[in-house]
Amino acid sequence: MRSTVLPGASDTIVAQATAGARSALAVIRVSGPDAHVIGSTLLSPWHATPRRAFLASLRSPDDGRVIDQAIVTIFSAPASFTGEDMLELSLHGGEIGPSLAMNALLSCGARQALPGEFTRRALLNGKLDLLQAEAVADLVDSRSRAMHDVALGQLAGHLSARLEALRTQIIELEALLAYDVDFPEEDDGPVPAADIAEAAGNILATIDTLLATSTTGEMVRSGATVVIAGEPNAGKSSLFNALAGTQRAIVTDVPGTTRDALEAMMDIGPWPVRLVDTAGLRASADIIERLGIEVAERYLKDAAIVLVCGDDARSITRAIEHVRPLTTAAMLVVRTKSDIGQPPESPTLDEKRTSISVSARTGDGLSALMERITEALNREHDPASATTPVLTRERHRVALASARGEIAAFIQSYASESGLPATVAAVHLHSARSFLEELVGVVDTEEVLDRVFSAFCVGK
Prior knowledge:
Elements: E1 13-16, E2 25-31, H1 35-42, E3 43-44, E4 54-59, E5 66-75, E6 86-92, H2 96-107, E7 111-112, H3 117-124, H4 130-141, H5 145-155, H6 158-182, H7 193-211, H8 214-222, E8 224-230, H9 236-244, E9 262-268, E10 271-277, H10 287-301, E11 305-310, H11 313-323, E12 330-335, H12 349-352, E13 355-357, H13 366-380, H14 394-415, H15 422-440, H16 446-453
Parallel strand pairs: 1-7, 8-10, 8-11, 11-12, 12-13
Antiparallel strand pairs: 1-2, 2-6, 3-4, 4-5, 5-6, 9-10
């Protein structure tokens, strides 16, 4: 069973859920057994009707002075986010008002919430499973539309439902084995071994399908690395600025200006992309420039796509020769500065299919280049969507891979010529089911929960 012991679980907790800076509004959340008592003490008028917003004055418990006018919404257990009595105050933003409000709530018996404690209480009270709780954090941390969509799907329970169906398949297989052991003479005799092998094979195939999404999940979470590479003064930094839509990189006519890698997160089609501008590739005696080139070479090694840049056929050829030994990524040849002169012939017929001319100054060719990047990513990965279950964390992949290993071990044991008893082989099925249950938080340890919720915002 999932652990229900949480230090301070009977406390009433409070936290500001919005950023503590100058803003139009500030939202404060209170959850726990005394939430409504604290609210009725500090707010006037007080209305105890759940889920109906009302205007009230928040007063200091010390001298009764008005701290702020608040829009108040109350929630009664179990119909709340945490499954407990809750109170949400929408106040004017800033530093002083919300701080005074927090002090008033704390002085009436609430305590400051720990990071992720609201969501952790929702988990322990059965309002969310662990995958959905992680999706809450992913929504807050999303840096791309793709990650946002995947997190919404996970919060809606799409991945949880797929894993629950997988768990049900394992339970049904365990039931088949138990029936075969307990009632071998019933009905038509023992359950055919082929039926059991087929059921186990179907489970294995389902797990493999889910595991195959882990690469897409990692890309959605971190962004596909698209590296801009080429010789010095080839227009790389101008292209980076044009694609990123901001003047992040210094652009000059002096070769070797870029000494380090610059990154920008952006959406290109359905994909989040980590665009990287790197130092010009050339032999150099300058120690600092050489360090920048080494950084560029490391990025090339891990790239999903490399934009090989040059402003003429000769510089493009040299760039390709330099890049090709350093990466296995797809290469798109980009002829930069197309607004200056006529596009040259492609350096080789092999590269002609992937070359494109662009101008960072006029914007010509940039849309076509982004389409080429999208096409290249689509060839390697299935685009994620809100309705497609995707493994987004290493914890997911490890647990599911462990479950797969147990199913594979069951198939091998059950089919072995040594005639291993079904009850012994079924131990692997039980272990596989345990890994799935740990994944969704049906069984879990405090250590795992502490690790998951440590990265949450305080107000979540």
